[in-house]
UniProtKB/TrEMBL annotation:
Subunit structure: Single-chain monomer with multiple functions.
PROSITE patterns: DNA_POLYMERASE_A
Catalytic activity from the UniProt record: DNA(n) + a 2'-deoxyribonucleoside 5'-triphosphate = DNA(n+1) + diphosphate
UniProt xrefs under SUPFAM superfamilies: 5' to 3' exonuclease, C-terminal subdomain, DNA/RNA polymerases, PIN domain-like, Ribonuclease H-like
Gene: polA
Enzyme class, UniProt record, top EC level: transferase
Function, in words: In addition to polymerase activity, this DNA polymerase exhibits 3'-5' and 5'-3' exonuclease activity.
Protein family (similarity comment): Belongs to the DNA polymerase type-A family.
Lineage: Bacteria, Pseudomonadati, Pseudomonadota, Alphaproteobacteria, Rhodobacterales
Name of the molecule in the record: DNA polymerase I
Residue ranges of every copy of the 3'-5' exonuclease domain listed in the record: 325-521
Organism listed in the record: Sulfitobacter alexandrii
Superkingdom, taxonomy of origin: Bacteria
Alphabetized UniProt keyword annotations: DNA damage, DNA repair, DNA replication, DNA-binding, DNA-directed DNA polymerase, Exonuclease, Hydrolase, Nuclease, Nucleotidyltransferase, Transferase
Residue ranges of every copy of the DNA-directed DNA polymerase family A palm domain listed in the record: 694-897
Length: 937
DNA sequence: ACGCTCACG
DNA sequence: GACGTACGTGAGCGTA
C-alpha cells in the first residue's frame, strides 16, 4: 500500500528510549564474547523489533513505522523549569555505549529512525500521532509511558509491547480516572517525582482526578479554588497555583514540533538482508541471526567463536600524528565534531587554561577526541603574539570561535547524560567548566582508572601513563611556555603549536581510556572506581570551589607577634652560642652544638649524621640535648615559631583568593597510595592543633557572617577498623561499651584495674596502639616512648600475648602481600606493595606499609563514602561541606540549622560503611561547632 | 633538585 | 649476624 498517508493507513511509533530501558532491565548483563562489550540492551532491543516485524502481518499490520529517540538532554522544558528531570539517575555505566548501537540496529532493520534536538521523543510522537489522526489514518504508540496517554483517542492507541495489551480511552480512564483530554490536568496536579514535575504537594492521581471531574478542567478548578471544602486542599491549590500551571506546561506534549520529514517517509520497507545479517553477526547474536536468516531465506553468516586474549592490546593501532589534528575555528566545523560525538556516545576532553590554579585560571581553549588519532583543538582566547614584544598588541589571534558561541554549542553535549565525557584528572576540567556555567556530567577519568588498579605501583599523571601504556612521549609543555621570568601562559602559545599539544592530550586520554577501562573488570576494581573514585570528583570540585573564609588580620597580627618573639629568642641564642649564625640552618646548628660546643647527648653519645654528612638536629635530638644545656630548648622554641610563621600565618595570607576572600585548597585523589586524599596549595590538612600556640591559627579560619562552622570527626576509626579486621574480641567489646580504648589496652597489658589507671600508663598503651597500626617494632616503640629497646620489646610481646589476633593479622597480611603483590581494604581497594620481596631494610618498610594500608585505606574508604553521600543528604539544609582532614569533615551552616546538620551529617558518617561492608564495631562521630575552626573542633 | 625539619591524621 | 626501622602526607627553608 502506498500513496499519501491517509485513510486505511496505520502508523506504528516506537518509543526508542522506553524500549531500550525495558530491554536493559529485563535481561542479564550480557557481553559480546570477543571483546566484552556490553550488549544486553541491544540484544533485547533487536529481539523486540524482530518480534514486532514477525507479528505484524494481517489486516492490522502497520503500513508505516518509526522508532523515535530522545536527543540531547536540554529541551524547551528545561528553559521553563531548570529542575526538570533533575532527579533522573545517571544512566548505568554499561548501558551508555549501547545507545548508539540501538540506532544502528534500527537502521539495519531498515526502519525509520527519528530524533530532534531540543525535543523529547514524546513530542515527536505527539506530532506524528496528530498528523496521522488528521490525515484519517490510525496510529499505535508502542510504549507504556503514562506521559503519552494524553494522546490516546480518535484512532490513536497505545500498545504495551511486553504485556501485549492495548490501551484505549477506557484504558487511560482506568489509569488516570479521566479521559485522555484531561490527563495533563491530572498530571499537573499530581506531579511526577521521576521527571521532577512539582505538581501540588500532597495531591496524588486519585485526588487530582476527583477534583478535575468535579470542576471540569484545571483552569476552572484553579479559578474556583476558594470553593473547595477541605481547608488543606484549598490552601494548597491557592498557594501553588503558579507551580501547578508550570507543571501543566511541562507535561503537555508539543504536537507541533518542526519535522524535516513527512508521514510518507515512514512507510514500511523491507530490510536489506545482507546489511541486517551483517549487523547481527557483528553483535554476535547467534540465535537471532539464525532466526532472521531463516525468515529471510538467506545464508547464515559465520560468527567467530574465538574470544580475544584478555591481555591482548585493545587500543587501536593508530600511530600518533600531530599533523592530523584539526583546529576548530567556526561553528560549522564544531557542529561536525558534535555529530561525531553523538555518533560515538563519548568524547575525550581537555581544557587549556592560563594557569594551574582552577580558581584563578581562565579558559583558553578546549580539545576533543572521539577516536584514536582523531582529535581537535578549539582555541578561544589565544593572543595574536607572544606578548613579549614591546610594540605587540594584545589582539586575539585569527581563526578562533567566539567564546560564548562555542560554549553555547558545547554545553548541551557536556551536560548530556547519554554522552560520556572522558578526561585525565577531570576534577580540574569540571572546575574550569563550572566557572563558565557548565555542569559537566557524566564523566570518566583515566587518572582514577589507573589509580584504582595500580595504586602503589606508579604515578598516575598523563605523561607517566602515556609512556607506560601507549609507549608514547607526549609533547612536553615546557618548551611552549618557557620557564622562570620569561614564562608565558597558554593563551600566548602560537596556535600551530597549541593545536598539536592540546589535541594530543585529548587523543592520549581517549587511547588510555580504551585501554584502561576494560582492565578495571579484569582487576576486579570496577566497584572501587565507580563507587569510591569517580563520584568523588564533583563532590571535591564543589568543596574546593566553596573554600573557607580566612581572616587576614588575625593571621597578620599573629605573624607580627611571632616576629617579635623570634627576635628576642635570637638574641638569647646568639648569646648562648657565643656568635651569630643562621638559626634556620640545621647544618650550622649541628656545627655549633657538636663541634664548637662539643655537647653530648645524655647517654654520652653524639647524634647520627644524615646523608649529607651533617649532624642530625631534629626535634627529638634537641629535646634530649635540652637536659644538658639551655641552647637546644631556645632553638626548639625558635623553630616552632618559624614554622608557624612561615608555613601558616605568612603563607596562608598569600592563598586568600582576591575575589572570594576565601582559601581554596586542592585535593589530590590519586596521590596517596592508601586511598587517603592529600591537600595542596595550600595544605589544609596539617593546620596546627597539637600545641596551644599553633592551635590559635585555627581561630583565623572563620565562618561567614551569620553562619557557623561545624566539625564532625570519627572517633578512633583506625583502631575500630583494626579491632574488626584482626577480630579482637576485647577491643570490639570495649568499643561496644564506649570504654576508653587506650585505658582498656593499658589495663589488659599492665594488669591495672581501670579505676586505678594513671595517665602515664595510659600514654604508653596509647603509643602501643598506634604502633600496632603502623607495623610495630621494638626499636620504633623504644624511640617513641624513650625507653630501652628491650623494655619496648617486652611491651610488644605482652601485647601480642594478650591480643593474639593482632599478630595473626600482621602475619597474614604480610603473607598476602608477598603472594599477590598487593593488599586490600574491606571495600576492595587494592594497594600494591612491590617492595615486599626486596632485600634489606626496604623489605621492612614494605611490610609495615602493607600492615598499615588495609587499616588506613579502609578508614579512607569510609569517609569517601560519607562525602559522596553527603551532598544529597544535606541538599535541603543551608549548609555546605568545606574541608576533609582524613577523619574529619568541616561544614559551614547558617545559624539556627547547626543541630539539624549535625544529626544529618553524623548519620551519614556513622552509616557510611553500609550496606556493602558490615562492621563488628560501630562507628562513632564527635561533633563541635563555633564561629571559628578552633572552637568547632 | 634534594635533604632536613615539622605540621597534620 | 648486621642493618636500620614506627604508617600516610605537603610546605618551607637551606644547601648544593
Amino acid at each position: 500500500m502506498s500513496g499519501t498517508f491517509g485513510k486505511g493507513h496505520h502508523l506504528h511509533l516506537i518509543d526508542g528510549s522506553a524500549f531500550i530501558f525495558r530491554a536493559y532491565h529485563a535481561l542479564p548483563p550480557l557481553t559480546r564474547k570477543s571483546d566484552g562489550l556490553p550488549i544486553g540492551a541491544v540484544s533485547g532491543f533487536c529481539n523486540m523489533i524482530f518480534k514486532m516485524v514477525e507479528d505484524n502481518t494481517g489486516p492490522d499490520a502497520p503500513t508505516h513505522v518509526a522508532v523515535i529517540f530522545d536527543k540531547g538532554s536540554h529541551t524547551f522544558r528545561n528553559d521553563m523549569y531548570d529542575l526538570y528531570k533533575a532527579n533522573r539517575e545517571a544512566m548505568p555505566e554499561d548501558l551508555r555505549p549501547q545507545i548508539p548501537l540501538t540506532r544502528q540496529a534500527t537502521e539495519a532493520f531498515n526502519i525509520a529512525c527519528k530524533e530532534l534536538e531540543g525535543f523529547e521523543a514524546d513530542d515527536i510522537i505527539a506530532t506524528l500521532a496528530r498528523q496521522a489522526r488528521e490525515a484519517g489514518g490510525r496510529c499505535t504508540i508502542i510504549s507504556s509511558d503514562k506521559d503519552l496517554m494524553q494522546l490516546v483517542g480518535d484512532g490513536v492507541e497505545m500498545l504495551d509491547a511486553m504485556k501485549n495489551t492495548r490501551i484505549d480511552r477506557d484504558g487511560v480512564f482506568d489509569k488516570f480516572g479521566v479521559y485522555p483530554d484531561r490527563v495533563v490536568d491530572v498530571q499537573a496536579l499530581a506531579g511526577d517525582s521521576v521527571d521532577n514535575v512539582p505538581g501540588a504537594p500532597g495531591i496524588g492521581i486519585k485526588t487530582a482526578a476527583l477534583l478535575i471531574n468535579e470542576y471540569g478542567d484545571l483552569d476552572a478548578l484553579l479559578e474556583r479554588a476558594e470553593e473547595i471544602k477541605q481547608p488543606k486542599r484549598r490552601q494548597t491549590l491557592i498557594e501553588h497555583a503558579d507551580q501547578i500551571r508550570l507543571s501543566r506546561k511541562l507535561v503537555l506534549l508539543d504536537d507541533r514540533t518542526p519535522l524535516d520529514f513527512t508521514l510518507d517517509d515512514l512507510e514500511v520497507r523491507e530490510p536489506d538482508s545482507d546489511k541486517l545479517l551483517a549487523f547481527l553477526a557483528e553483535m554476535e547474536f547467534r540465535t537471532l541471526t539464525k532466526r532472521v536468516a531463516e525468515k529471510m531465506g538467506a545464508e547464515m553468516p559465520t560468527i567467530e567463536d574465538t574470544p580475544a586474549l584478555p591481555d591482548a592490546p585493545q587500543v587501536d593501532d593508530v600511530p600518533f600524528d600531530t599533523d592530523n589534528y584539526e583546529q576548530v575555528g567556526d561553528a560549522g566545523t564544531l557542529e561536525k565534531w558534535l555529530d561525531a560525538i553523538y555518533e560515538a556516545g563519548h568524547v575525550a576532553i581537555d581544557t587549556e587554561t592560563t594557569g594551574l590554579n582552577e580558581m584563578t585560571a581562565d579558559l583558553v581553549g578546549i580539545s576533543l577526541a572521539v577516536e584514536p588519532g582523531k582529535a581537535c583543538y578549539i582555541p578561544l582566547i589565544h593572543k595574536a603574539n607572544r606578548g613579549d614584544d614591546l610594540f605587540g598588541s594584545d589582539d586575539l589571534a585569527e581563526g578562533q570561535m567566539d567564546l560564548d558561541t562555542c560554549l553555547g554549542m558545547l554545553k548541551p553535549v557536556l551536560e548530556d547524560p547519554s554522552i560520556l565525557k572522558i578526561g585525565q584528572n577531570m576534577k580540574y576540567d569540571v572546575k574550569i567548566l563550572a566557572q563558565v556555567g557548565i555542569a559537566m556530567a557524566p564523566i570518566d577519568d583515566t587518572m582514577l582508572m589507573s589509580y584504582a588498579q595500580h595504586a602503589g605501583l606508579h604515578g598516575h599523571g598523563m605523561d607517566a601513563l602515556s609512556e607506560r601504556y601507549l609507549d608514547h612521549t607526549p609533547i612536553p609543555i615546557k618548551p611552549l611556555l618557557g620557564s622562570g621570568k620569561s614564562a608565558i601562559t597558554f593563551d600566548k602559545v602560537p596556535l600551530e603549536d597549541a593545536v598539536k599539544y592540546a589535541a594530543e592530550d585529548a587523543d592520549i586520554t581517549l587511547r588510555l581510556w580504551k585501554l584502561l577501562k576494560p582492565q578495571l573488570h579484569a582487576a576486579q576494581v570496577t566497584k572501587v572506581y565507580e563507587t569510591l573514585e569517580r563520584p568523588l570528583v564533583p563532590v571535591l570540585a564543589d568543596m574546593e570551589r566553596a573554600g573557607i573564609k580566612v581572616d587576614r588580620d588575625t593571621l597578620s597580627r599573629m605573624s607580627n607577634a611571632f616576629s617579635q618573639k623570634m627576635a628576642g629568642l635570637e638574641d638569647e641564642i646568639f648569646g648562648l652560642a657565643g656568635r651569630k649564625f643562621s638559626v634556620g640552618s640545621p647544618k650550622q646548628i649541628g656545627e655549633i652544638l657538636f663541634d664548637e660546643m662539643s655537647l653530648d647527648l645524655p647517654d654520652g653519645k653524639k647524634p647520627a649524621k644524615g646523608k649529607s654528612g651533617a649532624w642530625s638536629t631534629g626535634a627529638d635530638v634537641l629535646e634530649d640535648l635540652a637536659t644538658v644545656h639551655d641552647l637546644p630548648r631556645r632553638i626548639l622554641d625558635w623553630r616552632q615559631l618559624d614554622k608557624l610563621k612561615s608555613t601558616y600565618t605568612d603563607a596562608l595570607q598569600n592563598h586568600i583568593n582576591k575575589d572570594t576572600g576565601r582559601v581554596h585548597t586542592s585535593y589530590s585523589i590519586a596521590g596517596a597510595s592508601t586511598g587517603r586524599l592529600a591537600s595542596t596549595d595550600p595544605n589544609l590538612q596539617n593546620i596546627p592543633i597539637r600545641s596551644e600556640e599553633g592551635r590559635r591559627i585555627r581561630e583565623a579560619f572563620v565562618a561567614e557572617e551569620g553562619k557557623t562552622l561545624v566539625a564532625l570527626d570519627y572517633s578512633q576509626i583506625e583502631l575500630r577498623i583494626l579491632a574488626h579486621i584482626a577480630d579482637i574480641p576485647e577491643l570490639k567489646q570495649a568499643f561496644a561499651d564506649d570504654i576508653d580504648i587506650h585505658a582498656l589496652t593499658a589495663s589488659e597489658m599492665f594488669n591495672v584495674p581501670l579505676p586505678e589507671m594513671t595517665p602515664d600508663i595510659r600514654r604508653q598503651a596509647k603509643a602501643i596502639n598506634f604502633g600496632v597500626i603502623y607495623g610495630i617494632s621494638g626499636f620504633g616503640l623504644a624511640r617513641n616512648l624513650r625507653i630501652p629497646r628491650a623494655e619496648a620489646q617486652g611491651f610488644i610481646d605482652r601485647y601480642f600475648e594478650r591480643f593474639p589476633g593482632i599478630r595473626t593479622y600482621m602475619d597474614d597480611t604480610k603473607a598476602f602481600a608477598k603472594k599477590h603483590g598487593y593488599v586490600q581494604t574491606l571495600f576492595g581497594r587494592r594497594i600494591h606493595t612491590p617492595e615486599i620481596g626486596a632485600k634489606g631494610p626496604r623489605a621492612g618498610f614494605a611490610a609495615r606499609a602493607a600492615i598499615n594500608a588495609p587499616i588506613q585505606g579502609t578508614a579512607a574508604d569510609v569517609i569517601r563514602r560519607a562525602m559522596i553521600r553527603m551532598p544529597d543528604a544535606i541538599r535541603n539544609l543551608p549548609a555546605r561541606m568545606l574541608l576533609q582532614v582524613h577523619d574529619e569533615l568541616l561544614f559551614e551552616v547558617e545559624q539556627g540549622a547547626e543541630e539539624e546538620l549535625i544529626s544529618t551529617a553524623r548519620k551519614v558518617m556513622e552509616d557510611a560503611n553500609e550496606p556493602v561492608v558490615r562492621l563488628d564495631v560501630k562507628l562513632t562521630v564527635d561533633a563541635g561547632q563555633g564561629s571559628n575552626w578552633a572552637e568547632a573542633h
